[in-house]
């Protein structure tokens, strides 16, 4: 909790640390009602930080100091200063050893930061600044040390004792306790420290690296989940191989461990050699996890594994550089997933997510650059901008340099900076040095916030056979940044003739044509590109593969979009044309609704989808993506002022029309998919995942017919599916249907069957929380009292409160403000338990500027009420103060 106003920390104030820690020796004595931590720090003056011996200021919070020695001499109260965040003392020599003993209370740590208990096990979360809640330390990523860790605990309750690196010794004590010592040979910052103690089982495998070393792989869980680990293990081995093949990166320790814990603030954490995962990102079994969950496990296992190089071997100098490791690692895991699954579908999913959520962040009060200039609470900066936009920045470098030069750049980066804590500038420098390209202007992507807008006009000169594209870029003002300089925007593009054939591309002044798809680098505020020898008026396909995170505006007509849907050689842009067509049609419906007119749907949307459904040659996953209308949240993001009710009505109207007009086609495809499901055993492979996604979206349309025959197939799928993907989809469709008795029956059966599986119950909560039928808030309030719900488990909070506030727009934005009041109450309660989770749940309220006057007033009032509610954490305070500014 905050005892004084939180301070803003600025990048410009960065200074190298005064002291370094060469060795860190830790001893943990774990007990049920407290833990003793002894730390021996072998320190020296940092030669790079100047002369003299400044005071040593160690970070430390919520620590009860029991004992302190400097070079074996006990220090008395007058020899040091202690505040609630620091311990200061005066060294007398350039080299010295500090010994401290503190008492901490993991058993009552509900913030899940530092050392805490999740169920019956001890575990840690130290990124970003959790280590200071474990012991007094220089808790900053540019202080890297070699760690040796000894843990001792009751042997029966905690038979497994783990930490980073390799096990080097273990033994028993007389009183039923035992101990183990681990040593990590690699220097690391404190945020990568981890320990685990518990009654855990593991599965074991091994991987032979490219240089022929055998690495032991272990995944630990509580015994009841031992049968749900194979998918994570397979994903880990694929990741290790991929990183060798694509980036030349070999694993470096003899053992790699993953531990699954139930209470975790984020997805997972890349602690050196000992990754700790939210169980939702490790456990996967066809009976209990959907295809999407399987894919998430694969992606998160890869992400954390890839951090071993992009994050651990080369780490961040300071937390302003967070995207150095996160943007790069998200880019790496996205490419891995693209290689393991369908590349186009992966890109569609990522872009839909980015445009809906990151663009909204960029347009809101918490907007910040990929490399922020300041923050109050670093936990608030694990954002979509740092992660997802950061990955887009890396993707653009990849696009501009080409795969080969990019690989040279990453090799140079890893080689040059191995064992160091560096900056985003160092990364870009390596890319420049390896490629010979100047990225000075490109670096504005790191420093300027906001989503650029790119407007495009074209002109065909039939006489001269030239075609000119003119780009105009601009970027809206964001907090602290009124004016922006032009970005470097790579625009991948092609030109289509009236038969849908791709035209060869040659720019004026070029000697030869350069294929039929190429990248234009837009660098000026206004810039034209003229193509020569263009035989006919072409239709441009722009921003292929979403080559830059911008809002593109080209005045496509609906017929042109239908044409691109059919003919564009770029799969992503075929989908994008369909989305733009749907957006245009839905926006027209929203306007009709706002004017009080009867709704009239442009039949071209139906015809376009009919063609998609009828085309048996298309990948089923693509068909499913193309049948999915843009989400309400995306339509809201695109609006100047979001009319949640009109958007919901318009979108439902369109879905019902599609269901009615295309019923027979949907029915036929559904039946064939379901039949294939019944006759083939489940596998989480790309072909089956594609089939199930088509089947499930078809089912959701069929049920809009509200007919008995649709209900029958839905209930059949719910009852007889042999996997969670089909079962949960059927449940979700039932929950959103008017068949109250079947719905209640299905919900009750599901809960009875899965009541002991926390992750499945999360799905059960989320499906109900997201249901847009009237009465949503009351249903959520009732579920808060369900025996399986607790505010102390972040997954439960996300499943019920998060799903309601983020996915259930009509109910959350109820015009009487009750949804807002509910969320504010939960944030106030969470603030006292878990500030990081409290602050994250606040996000929907921070977007108040998007809504009408009545809602704005109601939302602001709730933000003000939280602000006035008492002792606020720095996390919540920062978000509130920026949102109300
Ligand atoms: N580095 C992790 C994310 C992470 C960040 C903070 C955490 O606790 C506050 C936990 C995990 C990743 O990128 O996966
Ligand atoms: Zn990460």
UniProtKB/TrEMBL annotation:
EC number: 3.4.11.2
Organism: Geopseudomonas guangdongensis
Domain Aminopeptidase N-like N-terminal stretches: 103-192
Protein's UniProt name: Aminopeptidase N
InterPro entries: Aminopeptidase_N-like_N (IPR045357), Aminopeptidase_N-like_N_sf (IPR042097), PepN_Ig-like_sf (IPR038438), Peptidase_M1 (IPR001930), Peptidase_M1_dom (IPR014782), Peptidase_M1_pepN (IPR012779), Peptidase_M1_pepN_C (IPR024601), Peptidase_M1_pepN_C_sf (IPR037144)
GO-annotated biological processes: proteolysis
Top-level taxon of the source organism: Bacteria
Gene Ontology MF terms: alanyl aminopeptidase activity; metallopeptidase activity; zinc ion binding
Enzyme class: hydrolase
Domain Peptidase M1 alanyl aminopeptidase C-terminal as annotated: residue spans: 559-885
The Peptidase M1 membrane alanine aminopeptidase domain, residue ranges: 232-445
Domain Peptidase M1 alanyl aminopeptidase Ig-like fold stretches: 450-554
Required co-factors: Zn(2+)
Catalytic activity: Release of an N-terminal amino acid, Xaa-|-Yaa- from a peptide, amide or arylamide. Xaa is preferably Ala, but may be most amino acids including Pro (slow action). When a terminal hydrophobic residue is followed by a prolyl residue, the two may be released as an intact Xaa-Pro dipeptide
Signal peptide feature range: none
Family (UniProt): Belongs to the peptidase M1 family.
Keywords from the named record: Aminopeptidase, Hydrolase, Metal-binding, Metalloprotease, Protease, Zinc
Its biological purpose: Aminopeptidase N is involved in the degradation of intracellular peptides generated by protein breakdown during normal growth as well as in response to nutrient starvation.
